[in-house]
Amino acid sequence: MEVVASAPGKVLIAGGYLVLERPNAGLVLSTTARFYAVVRPLRDSLPADSWAWAWTDVKVTSPQLSREATYKLSITKSTLQLTSARESTNPFVEQAIQFSVAAAKATIIDKERKDVVDKLLLQGLNITVLGCNDFYSYRKQIEARGLPLTPEVLLSLPPFSSITFNSEVANGTTTGEKCKPEVAKTGLGSSAAMTTSVVAAVLHYLGAVNLSCPGQSSGDNATEQGLDLVHAIAQSAHCIAQGKIGSGFDVSAAVYGSQCYVRFSPEILSSAQATGGTSLPDVVSDIVTQRWDHENKQFSLPPLMTLLLGEPGTGGSSTPSMVGSVKRWQKSDPEKSKDTWSKLAIANSALENQLRILKGLSENHREAYESVVRSCSHLTYGKWTEVATNQDQELIVRSLLAARDASLEIRLHMREMGIAAGVPIEPDSQTQLLDATMNMEGVLLSGVPGAGGFDAVYSVTLGDANNAVANAWSSVGVLPLLVREDCHGVSLEDADPRTREVSAAVSSIQIN
Ligand SMILES: Nc1ncnc2c1ncn2[C@@H]1O[C@H](COP(=O)(O)OP(=O)(O)O)[C@@H](O)[C@H]1O
Ligand SMILES: C[C@@](O)(CCOP(=O)(O)OP(=O)(O)O)CC(=O)O
């Protein structure tokens, strides 16, 4: 038996920093970048005395990092003990395995199904993790080979290419010391997608949830409960592995897909955080019985809108240190920061409302919507009002312009926040680029996703205006990424994605 599960990467288009505090919402889009986890047994048959084993074996392979780690898994405690070299460990996958095995044991009470879990565990777990290229930065290699910074060059990379390590620390300064290098990534939430895909694959493999393949989602109660279990376990494992409780929007997007997210109360994880004393099975029993109070309201881009991401440089920014600076500013200047906070909350919810209105208009007035959006895609925003020839079309243009204004307002207050907190949330170089982008034909929104900084820029364009924006970005040294919005969350896959790539290549050879 083999189980393959995948989970998407994310882009937070609005709500950075605010989403750390309930009840502020963040608008998060899930993407075509997916992380895959493949679970297989390590051995097909079991010796007669295996029922008495206290330990089983686990192997975790990350082909892209050329890493393989082996462990012993305690059958009763669900804990792992490393049996290979320390350098190859992956804390996210380790926590994902421990929490998922403990959760399967805690939630499966039927005797027969419990026996199946024990048998599957005794056969050992062979887990492979694979992240789409979109999660990783190839900018340095492209530049080193003197190739242009275009999406076509990214397309020419083989799928699941090896990942390079940064020789610099996250904030771009070299340490000079021989420290463990960071993976060069694009900020799509590889660790959250990886953790979620492993949790989903292990829970499904052990029969604790019943995930569906894309397009097969039944949307019934059992499926939803399954997703909620994946969410609770993935959030817990991710927080423990990264040693802090963030807002959790990245894990939520990896589980439920594009959404309007309100964070869970951090107290839910106090048992998981308590060091010493509590055993993992007790922690997990507590976590699965907690009332998870996060919100994941359905939300995605209206039709004929394209999410485009660009990598403006190398190095990126360190999210935790930026969050630290913003929090210090909130403490030192509560009045001003509250003011910025409430202006941002208003602008974020205005953007959400306008995008929801546009979605509704696209459903109820399809023809008018399509004609307006296609016409506006060839025009700069100043001329958008000219395309409306009836009331429906006027409504659509009004909403497009209101969404655009909300985007500008968000940028203004994010910049303000950055200046006040002394961190470049929207650095000057990005401001110039984003202003120029906003003035191009068919551009609706743009900004710095998530915590901002030097990591990435995004834009949402109308019709096929994304091509011109990508060309403009390439010409100024910003690498347009291949990734787009895809609202689907975690899902089951029918095969190892590497075999699918091979069969796709074979069929394309046959077709040609
Ligand atoms: N393919 C992979 N194999 C193993 N570990 C990976 C892989 N991709 C990402 N990771 C882990 O995830 C970490 C990056 O996670 P994080 O710092 O949260 O960045 P992101 O913004 O992409 O989530 C890496 O340092 C590495 O530990
Ligand atoms: C500041 C934040 O609200 C948003 C950070 O968003 P990013 O998308 O920048 O996240 P990373 O992938 O962790 O770098 C922190 C949070 O919500 O946890």
UniProtKB/TrEMBL annotation:
InterPro entries: Erg8 (IPR016005), GHMP_kinase_N_dom (IPR006204), Phosphomevalonate_kinase (IPR035102), Ribosomal_Su5_D2-typ_SF (IPR020568), Ribsml_uS5_D2-typ_fold_subgr (IPR014721). It is an enzyme of class 2 (transferase). Its EC number is 2.7.4.2. Signal peptide: none annotated. GO terms for cellular component: peroxisome. Residues 185-257 form the GHMP kinase N-terminal domain. The keyword Nucleotide-binding applies. It comes from the Eukaryota. Pathway: Isoprenoid biosynthesis; isopentenyl diphosphate biosynthesis via mevalonate pathway; isopentenyl diphosphate from (R)-mevalonate: step 2/3. One of its GO terms (biological process) is isopentenyl diphosphate biosynthetic process, mevalonate pathway. The keyword ATP-binding applies. Belongs to the GHMP kinase family. Mevalonate kinase subfamily. This is phosphomevalonate kinase. It comes from Miscanthus lutarioriparius.
